[in-house]
Amino acid sequence: MVDVWKYVVKMKAPSPVSYVSAILLIVFTAGVYKQLTLTQKTANNCEMTFMFEYPHFVEISVPMNRGKYNLYAYTEGQTMEKIKSMKFYGTPVIFIPGHSGSYRQVRSIASVNIRKMYHIQSNIKFDFFTVDLNEEYSAVFGGVLLQQTAFVSQCIDTIIKTYEHDYKPTSIILIGHSMGGIIAKGLFIDPLFDTNLVELIITLATPHRPLFLADHYMDSYYDQVEKIWGNGLDKPRSSFLSNISLLSIGGGHRDLMVWPCLTYTPHADINALSLAIPGVWTSTDHQCILWCKSLVKSIVRVLFDSAESDSDDTIYEWRKKVSTYHFDKRSNGKWFHSNLHPVTVKLNEPNVIEWNETYKLQRSISLEKGTAMPIVIHLPLVEKSLNYEMTAEAVNIDYHDWVFSCKPDYRSKKHCLFGTNWSSNSTISVSKFMKRRHITLKLPDVHKLGHSNLVFKIKNTKKPTALNIDMYEASDRTNEITWRFWYGVFNRYLLWNVNVFETIQYKTILHGWPDSICMHCVYNVHMVPIKCSKKNHHAVSKFIVPWTQGILHGITSDTYVEPLRISLENIPLSNATNDPYLQFILDPKCNYRIELELSIMDTIGTIGLKYGLTFPSYIGIIILLVLSNQFSQLANSTKDDCSIYHNSLPSIIRVFKTLAITICFLTVMQNQWPNINKPIGGIDWLGHPLKAMIFSSLLYCITNSFMYFATVALWMMMLFWGKAINELLVRFIMKTLRKNATLSDWILYGFGKLPIAVSMIAILISYNTCGTVGLIISAFFYYFLLCTMVQDCIDQLIYYPIIFFKEYFMKGEKPGLNLSLTSIHLHFSLFLLWLLICGCHLPCSIEWARNYHHSKSLDPDPSLITSLILNTCAGIMWQMDIPKRNLKFYAQLSNLCIAASIILFLFCQTALFRIAPILTLVFVVITLHQCFSSWIGVQDPTDNQVDAASQIPV
């Protein structure tokens, strides 16, 4: 059998580049596997919400309902009877589920909201409604987006009409999970939709730019949404949306379905990640974001605080202040109100201990047993403090207002009667024990007010309390590194070596990271305590990106170490944006070594998941280049046989030459027409020549190695499992028709000899169900034909010794072995092309199967035209003996394949729905070339000899 393998396959030994590509494939597979198993291996720090009473969903009839969608009102406990009688009194909140999402996912937010309403005895009421969208796969099939949008719009009209006149709401709140957030934004596509009805939209793990474009319906839908909502650059938000608050919350690195770069949208009022939201500080996966208790409670607080304003701000301005407080810069309490931090505060209170401090720049006050009386600390500012900053850390200080600036009273010359409140500039910080707040003030801002003192207040308490103050010249505590992606690859890169006590604040500016080659590289920042004067210590690292909201935190303490994971998910909107930076709040009783380390496997996994969406286009490029070489071999009259797929692969040098030339065209095209290739997933480097060359070469090598192994496995299946597949089909026919094996063999034989019947059946099935189903049926039959062809060759080789013995020794004639593999090799490449087209349309078949009990056919069906064309071509091609020998225009076919591969590279890396039409066109041209061979004519061998050195460089 080994000799048979060598004869039939005739594979050359892999080149050294192939081994390198194989290593890259293994490394990328390991990195992607690590990312995919991240949620299982790391602890989920989210506490799950729980139900106080049994939930009920009351169905509400929606006029003009298509039947597969429904609307429900959520209720539990005391409100159940009122809801069943369709009596609503509060502000309606509509939950829109996303991809494969259930209407029951509203339970966590709705239940916590009801509990909070009872707990605080508030007059503010919310009525929760939830939409059942049949758990459709809206993230991979855009054909349902307009249908879902139209139904949600009808639901809004129905809900408004359900309220009695005295309680009729003036606005509603939309909460969308995953693709549900896009549906909420897409409501405004309809010019008849009343935009005044919606004032607040909260999106949870919503891909504001597509994860991948599976069909043109999704592309068109996102285009329409962007047209009215803008893109933050050259397209501003439409004026009629100016008073709608949009809050986008992402899950962070644990969400492997919708990455942080997709949840960011420049036209949102707030962009936040769960691991950066004060009080949450943990990453959530795609489903956990709906039931993470700390996050759900923050969302509920935003709803309640937004509904009641005691300020003169407009509703839009007030909601923005509330959401900024809860999702970005929470300075203290769980509830926000306009007088949370009064601008001016009286300082000379009775019965306090007043400390007049010296001009010492660093000081720490630790009260292990608390203090019986309030303490007021006066800190005179040095005269040369114009370039200075002050950072303070408050530990277990319960005052909302705790840091002020003032000018001493002219009579006492020491103390201040009133002070300006700076407490709103502070933010609570992540901590494993004791509540902590940090503030950093630029002292020139204090001097502008004419103030010369900083004042800190410590409330009387029995709890351990501490206050750490650090005043410093900004340049002494700030360093700036010009970013290089290889920092921390081999050894940890040293950022700071803090060998002095009492200092608490250091800062590192990461200059040039957005312009680096690997913007999506993942790094870990380690704060390693070198020496501590006390056992208990606590330090916090922060990552701040100026053009996005939220601060990422890392912790180092005596009992817990969590390195700060940083990755630049979003590029700045303009070149004038400040650089991202790291801030370190250290324990004043410790020395630290602060280091940066590249997380290689996390980086590889992240790049693999984000850039892996381009793999279908690279698979198509490789197959087309193989077909080009095979047609080039057929065009050579001195050799009328085309080699196996593996021997027809182009050389790596020629591939890189082709990539270099194509990338030049791609760069010019992206700069002139940036909307042709919209950024999807994490792919935003198509307009950068160096990045495009590096990542394109990397992706090509990985894809080429994958295809090499996949095709070897496919050949082995055809060689060793051909008879098994034949027997399996016979048994299937026997059980289906309940006939004997002889009839099944004849039926199978008939299909093999009359393949046009399979093609016609596939066309009928495509027309009546889904085009992809017809493609898949034909793909199975195509594979059966290949197995039959390979099995025939094997049979000839096995029986050749017997024939040779019979003919040579009995008749004296030496029989020849006329075994041509050209047809098998060409059909094998065309079969790979067919499989790729099936793969591009696979989401259609998934959605069709999902909705089969509602409708036998898929509507709309983007794969139908492709299926009809390909099955027609297959019915013609399977009847013929291809390739025809010595035909004209094989060289032109070779050039066509090269041109198609270039088009795939230019236009299909971010638009997967464009791959199938291009490959279908190539398939049609090949079919026409072989079908009309009698009209094309035979080439003259003397005039059309192609020298091997002059073959097309691909």
UniProtKB/TrEMBL annotation:
GO terms for cellular component: endoplasmic reticulum membrane. Pfam families: PGAP1, PGAP1_3rd. Its main location: endoplasmic reticulum. It is found in: Endoplasmic reticulum membrane. One of its GO terms (molecular function) is phosphatidylinositol deacylase activity. Residues 89-305 form the GPI inositol-deacylase PGAP1-like alpha/beta domain. Involved in inositol deacylation of GPI-anchored proteins which plays important roles in the quality control and ER-associated degradation of GPI-anchored proteins. Belongs to the GPI inositol-deacylase family. This is GPI inositol-deacylase.
